[in-house]
Design goal:
Elements: E1 4-7, H1 9-21, H2 25-42, E2 50-52, E3 62-66, E4 83-90, E5 95-103, H3 112-119
């Protein structure tokens, strides 16, 4: 997919915690990178599963939330698993940084404060 995929430390912590409940998460993340991100960023195919997060106060990088994330551990739910993945896409470098992963049953929205702390000041 991308030249480079980075998992930020806070993302790793989120993933580790969620993986205890959803055993297939690591594998699901790999599939997500190979399919959804490849389609969206490389081939320009929008299946309605990835949304840019507005109103963060900076323009670069673009930060997205994936709402369609297939999780095998959540049987029968398909891509509407309730797992949300927040990531930044650096178009020029063709780099993705995973920022946050969470289960919609645990919290409603992404941690906008975390996103701003990481990316504000990079040229708004």
């Amino acid at each position: 997919m991308s030249n480079e995929v980075i998992r930020r430390p806070a993302f790793e912590k989120d993933l580790k915690k969620l993986s205890k409940r959803f055993r297939s998460l690591d594998e699901d993340l790999g599939n997500f990178i190979r399919t959804q991100l490849e389609l969206f960023h490389k081939l320009g195919v929008d299946n309605g599963g990835v949304f840019q997060i507005p109103g963060l106060g900076f323009l670069e990088p673009k930060v997205y939330k994936a709402k369609k994330f297939a999780c095998k551990a959540l049987k029968g739910r398909g891509a509407a698993s309730g797992i949300r993945v927040v990531y930044a896409y650096f178009e020029k470098e063709d780099r993705i940084e995973f920022v946050e992963i969470y289960f919609k049953g645990d919290k409603e929205n992404e941690d906008r404060q975390r996103i701003r702390e990481i990316y504000s000041g990079r040229g708004a």
